[in-house]
Fold each of these.
Amino acid sequence: MSGGVLVLAEARRGELREVSLELLSLAAELSRAAGMALTAAVIDSTPERFAPALGAAGVGEVLTVRAPVEHFEAHVWERAVEQLIDSEQPAVVLCGHTIDALGFAPALAARLRLGFASDVTAASFDGGALRVRRGAYGEKLIAELSFPGSDCTLLTVRPGIFPAAEAGGASGPVRAVELQLDGAARTEHLEFVEVTESDVDITKAEFLLSIGRGVEDKDNIPRFEQLAGQLGATLSVSRPLVDAGWMPSARQVGQSGKTVKPRVYLAMGISGAVQHLAGMRGADTIIAVNSDPEAPIFGVAHYGAVADMFEVADELADALS
Ligand SMILES: Cc1cc2nc3c(=O)[nH]c(=O)nc-3n(C[C@H](O)[C@H](O)[C@H](O)COP(=O)(O)OP(=O)(O)OC[C@H]3O[C@@H](n4cnc5c(N)ncnc54)[C@H](O)[C@@H]3O)c2cc1C
């Protein structure tokens, strides 16, 4: 695949992570624009199990790499990816901006002197040159980066930004790649510790009712929890509610919280600060309720009501009861 796009799929506890399919859809666009081959690679103790799902539209070949450990280990992955880059000579390597990739990708890029950008939210080929976008200064600026002089550029791509490719949408050849990984592991996986603070994963919700500082008081939150239940929505929040200790961080949307992509995002009493928008602007339909007509949330909302969130909540609750 010399000069192609290489996607590093990610799996955890026997499941392919959604970000892998998102990377494939971005990679398909890039490879089409640049006329490059697209290859997906998966590193795992039993990598073959993921090969069918990775055969998505545009993928020319799936590489399976057998890891000598059952769970992710940063040094093993670093060594494996180094050898893959050496053998496949990709021009672009995509991995998720995830806790796993952060364990090896920046270190590898620095050591191999690759072009590198983290938390990428857009990428394209412009006149044959790769250009990417990422936030800077807490997303107050959007930086556009190019990588002159880099034969290979490694990008960690923000999850939840690109649509997921259809898993197994196309079947291509699968190649098992033998790599020297014995003795690479330097840490031992002991156990997964479950997050107990919340029983929800807001990144998977199709309908989010999201409340912000407009709620004013912790005692008002149950009212919106109840409304979420009536609407069939999941409750999420802006950061001040988490900072105040009113809600668990698992419910926080935004730059330092979760990136969500529901079909409907109903924001009530949220101003729409850039750090909040960073986590929700990819929602299919955004509806904003805010008493301030100048609130920035109206700049991204598809539908908006300049109204009191408590009055709207009461009317919705009455209509649904
Ligand atoms: C590095 C960094 C990371 C950050 N990460 C995040 C993040 O991940 N997520 C996040 O959310 N923020 C984040 N922030 C904070 C962010 O800058 C904002 O401060 C925050 O998003 C504001 O939350 P809010 O909209 O709920 O509150 P406010 O900005 O105070 O807005 C409250 C809104 O409610 C409206 N309102 C008030 N009363 C009513 C009512 N009765 N009916 C209707 N509307 C009403 C007001 O008009 C106002 O627009 C981050 C900041 C930094 C510096």
Amino acid sequence: MKQPERDLEKAAQAKRITQTLYQCYGEPHWRQPLPPLDELVSTILSQNTNDGNRDRAFETLRQRFPTWEAVRDAPLEEVIDAIRSAGLAQQKAPRIQALLRAITEEHGRLDLDFLHQFEAEAALRWLQQFKGVGPKTAAIVVLFSLNKAAFPVDTHIHRVTRRLGLIPESANAEQAHQLLASYFEASDYASAHLNIIRLGREICQARKPKCSICPLNQDCAYYRREDHP
Ligand code: SF4
């Protein structure tokens, strides 16, 4: 089926963005991929915090509880204590335990390797049935741990792609995932995802974007406005 003209324009812009950032930053590196269940728990821990706090909480959790069964069956307070460095521990700990119980009930064991057999869309849907697992968390597991096509949209990507004019200002997280997954090529997902996050951290920062040194400023709706900084 022929795609609407607007989609093709956006896809062309997405390709230019991918290529420009690749020229600037090169091939980005993701840390060693984790098994799907580990990646899922790690990504839940990463919500509303930075990578360092996420990693500290994950390591403490794994040190205190040698298996996911032990995390599932531990007193809630002990799990809260183990993941405290990730923040929102009172919320994240019960969600992680509920998730581990639900997976056990559905599959008889704590293992998400069966998701390797799923199509990307089916894996995304399956993961999002759990409380605390939204489109970004599911897409991170599918892209990096299952090595399948999904485009995770974190706060940096959401902000940068809105400013670029790639998605509407009004796009919510769910819409941003759908639109960006359709604009970027699946083979570019990991590179574009990681390099846009880097641009968001280093240049297109929330409060004061450094537009004058941004490699994307000629392709940016925000920059084209007269009142750009
Ligand atoms: S030109 Fe400015 S607003 Fe646009 S992407 Fe670059 S830093 Fe962000």
Amino acid sequence: MKKGRILITGSNGLLGQAVVSIITRESDFELVLSSVEEKSNININQEYIQLDITSKEKVKKTVADAAPDIIVNCAAYTDVDGCETERELSWRLNVDAVKHLIIAARPAGAKIVHFSTDYVFDGKNGPYDETAIPNPISFYGRTKLAAENALLSSGIKNAIIRTMVLYGAGSKVKPNFATWLVNKLSAGERINIVDDQIGNSTIVDDLAYGTLKLIEAEKEGIYNIAGRDIESRLDFTFKLCDVFGYKKELIKTIKTRDLNQPAPRPLNSGLITLKAQSELGFEPMGTVESLQLLKYQLGY
Ligand SMILES: NC(=O)c1ccc[n+]([C@@H]2O[C@H](COP(=O)([O-])OP(=O)(O)OC[C@H]3O[C@@H](n4cnc5c(N)ncnc54)[C@H](OP(=O)(O)O)[C@@H]3O)[C@@H](O)[C@H]2O)c1
């Protein structure tokens, strides 16, 4: 017998694809996939519904029709710099749409599993555990914190998973930090990498695995799920060079302020994952092990 029904939103994204993959392979849940595009990017035999979660009426109808026990919200506006200029659009997707999901989940009695970020912190004194006080310094961070607060005060069953520097392989997904590095370095291009942004990068397979553990353990509240090693972007890049066999001479070290990005970044960040390790049995991979997996997935 199936354990229950899960509706995934944003199933075409990097995380959405990984969550669908692990639930299909390693659990007994029935799945309904949905994303904003007309067609699913995932080549599996699962029901797919086109759903723009910024449409309150469509969300209500889809949730009522699908009657899920759990909604896993993998849809988001994830362009951190874009959020500074596209404030209305990013708020609609990252905050208002989460409120639409809450309204739709209530009569269905469904639980929402949602994803958040270390960008809810200012990066002055990381790494952070789940009880640390948020203080976002970018508009993206503010949208993600507002969604957390909407869920925490909603009165419906919910869990919030905070993660950071998410990377991995997927079908037709946007480049992420690791795949951008691979694209540039494999072409022999020189790149500038900051040495003053500290945190634990996360391979998407690990996050999806932690998410399934959280669902199976029926946990609620905030959980940090991220990679094992807390290090600078530069040290991550050097490890990637070692694993993929790229020349470190292509890398020039710079500071975050040299990039002049529209959104400020939390510098001294990182997420402490001890709660997920002890309560969910989540075992984060180290960077080298994760990059070896990525190398295999990319066919290098
Ligand atoms: N990426 C990171 O480094 C990072 C770090 C910390 C936390 N997170 C969080 O992790 C979660 C997943 O991120 P991700 O990296 O998997 O992002 P992603 O690859 O951009 O996936 C998001 C998906 O949502 C879809 N989407 C966009 N607008 C939509 C709408 N109106 N209705 C339904 N779906 C829509 C996107 O489609 P299009 O591609 O067509 O827009 C995309 O397929 C997000 O909550 C994010 O904030 C990410």
Amino acid sequence: MLQVAGIDTFYGETQALFGVSLEVGAGEAVALLGASGAGKTTLLRSVLGLTPARRGEIRFEARDITRRPTHEIARAGIAWVPDDRRIFPALKVRTNLALGRKRSGFKSWSLDDCFRLFSALEYLMERDCENLSGGEMQMVAISRALLGSPGLMLLDEPSQGLAPKLVQDVMSVIARMKDHGVSVLVVEQNAASVLKVTDRVYVLSQGQVVHQGASDALLADAALRKELLGT
Ligand SMILES: Nc1ncnc2c1ncn2[C@@H]1O[C@H](COP(=O)(O)OP(=O)(O)OP(=O)(O)O)[C@@H](O)[C@H]1O
Ligand SMILES: [Mg+2]
């Protein structure tokens, strides 16, 4: 579904990604791990065309999207939940969600589908977003992205700032998106949790892929996890 082949990405003259290659298969959930500053967000931004790759190639559903404008990449079926979530605080939940509605060539998502994923969402619809908790805000951000009916969901640190119970809720949502046929690429600090709900994992260090493999293998190998992630 997504093929990133040998991309170099820069901020001005500073190179942030060095020949990064990564794939996400149809219906697959893939974790992207690495220390702060490793280039995880930059990789998502490169896929979305927000910080376009200077060299290399990015394909989505076999179509070359390298350096295409972001709106065109979004329309092709790639959704993004950024680390700061970007909810409009002055607007109601219902209005924030309505802004996400889009057609795509993929399975279309309705509000009812989102209510099935997040049972509490239905009762928040008339609330102003500025009064939501962090967990509720994340629920709205993910639902808004799903209402765009994506084939691939990019999540940047979805469990950041959430209480442990809510971290588990976010992880189970990743598993359920996958069950609904949405491919997922998720950046996380919470390695142990995300490895349980993903199929494969890539680890970035200083802008390069230093490990790739099955999530359960890395979960089972405490020594390798310590070496790669320090945890
Ligand atoms: N807007 C920017 N301008 C210049 N350099 C940047 C910019 N954004 C990121 N960088 C640099 O690019 C490198 C990769 O940053 P990136 O944000 O992708 O890391 P990350 O893995 O997402 O880290 P974190 O876990 O802290 O979110 C870092 O060295 C960072 O300082
Ligand atoms: Mg980041």
